[in-house]
């Protein structure tokens, strides 16, 4: 299994990276987890978008899904598609509101929103807490996590290897259980544990670097990769926090970097 970071900037694109998006290659399967601002362009540096076998979206905040509209344009209007896109609709596993939300984003006007339909090129499948799906021969499991909207952590399993992605979450027992024994936990670390604004992070939004390390330790993962650091925080500080809480290898991911799992 191989993970390529399309973007890892938290809360929006930064000067060195698009927002959240990840390409996962497992066997013959090619999947993207999240498509935040700027990630569709990055995807094209690593893979022909027509080669995608599925899209997984942890939640529907713009920094995790804004470039889905670009993917829709590509599949509808590319002048030289390699196959009939309507006859080979791309599976999308996402929160239940995804069809309506993406139709609204794609519609040419508010008046057209109600009649805009993307199911000519996509098939939508609603994620659920504890849900499981097979996508192009890869097993995908989901667990609800603690964020201000419907949000999921995702676990991808293939031939005995496992990658868990936290999505966006505050401290959450569901993430620990989802990540239990995983080879890699790709975990958000969005702010320092202590700042001038708080002595401990606000609950139900994001993880600090320390909390990311604590979740990795509690789950017994083999390796921790930190992501989703906003441009206004120091990734090195969050890395140091995670290293102090987790005894295994920890790394701060970078845009366009690839990790073998």
Question: What features would you describe in this structure?
Answer:
- By secondary structure, the chain is of the alpha/beta class.
- The chain has a single domain (2-260), classed as Metallo-beta-lactamase, Chain A (4-Layer Sandwich).
- It is 23% helix and 27% strand.
- The protein has a seven-stranded mixed sheet.
Strand content: 25-35%
Second rung of CATH, namely the architecture:
4-Layer Sandwich
Sketch the topology as an H/E string, one letter per element: EEEHEHHEHEEEEEHEHEHEE
Q: Tell me about the biggest sheet?
A: 7 strands, mixed
* Global Rg: 18 Å
State the strand order across the main sheet.
6-5-4-3-2-1-14
CATH-defined superfamily: Ribonuclease Z/Hydroxyacylglutathione hydrolase-like
Number of strands: 14
Determine and state the CATH class: Alpha Beta
What is the approximate shape? globular
- The structural domain count equals 1
- Give start-end ranges of low-pLDDT stretches: none
CATH level-3 fold name:
Metallo-beta-lactamase, Chain A
């Amino acid at each position: 299994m191989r993970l390529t970071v399309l973007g890892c900037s938290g809360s929006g694109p930064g000067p060195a990276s698009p927002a959240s998006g990840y390409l996962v290659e497992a066997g013959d399967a090619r999947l993207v987890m999240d498509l935040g601002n700027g990630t569709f362009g990055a995807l094209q540096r690593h893979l022909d978008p027509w080669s995608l076998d599925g899209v997984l979206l942890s939640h529907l905040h713009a920094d995790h899904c804004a470039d889905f509209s670009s993917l829709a344009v590509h599949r509808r209007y590319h002048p030289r598609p390699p196959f009939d896109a309507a006859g080979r609709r791309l599976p999308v596993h996402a929160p239940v509101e995804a069809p309506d939300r993406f139709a609204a984003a794609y519609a040419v006007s508010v008046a057209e929103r109600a009649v805009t339909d993307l199911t000519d090129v996509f098939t939508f499948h609603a994620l659920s807490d504890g849900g499981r799906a097979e996508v192009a021969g890869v097993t995908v499991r989901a667990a609800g996590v603690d964020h201000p909207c419907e949000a999921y952590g995702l676990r991808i399993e293939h031939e005995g290897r496992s990658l868990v992605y936290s999505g966006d979450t505050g401290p959450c027992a569901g993430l620990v259980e989802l990540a239990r024994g995983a080879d890699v936990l790709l975990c958000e670390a969005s702010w320092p544990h202590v700042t001038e604004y708080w002595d401990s992070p606000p609950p139900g939004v994001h993880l600090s670097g320390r909390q990311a390390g604590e979740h990795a330790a509690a789950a017994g993962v083999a390796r921790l990769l930190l992501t989703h650091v906003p441009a206004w925080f120091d990734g090195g500080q969050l890395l140091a926090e995670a290293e102090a809480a987790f005894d295994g290898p920890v790394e701060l991911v970078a845009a366009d970097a690839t990790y073998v799992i």
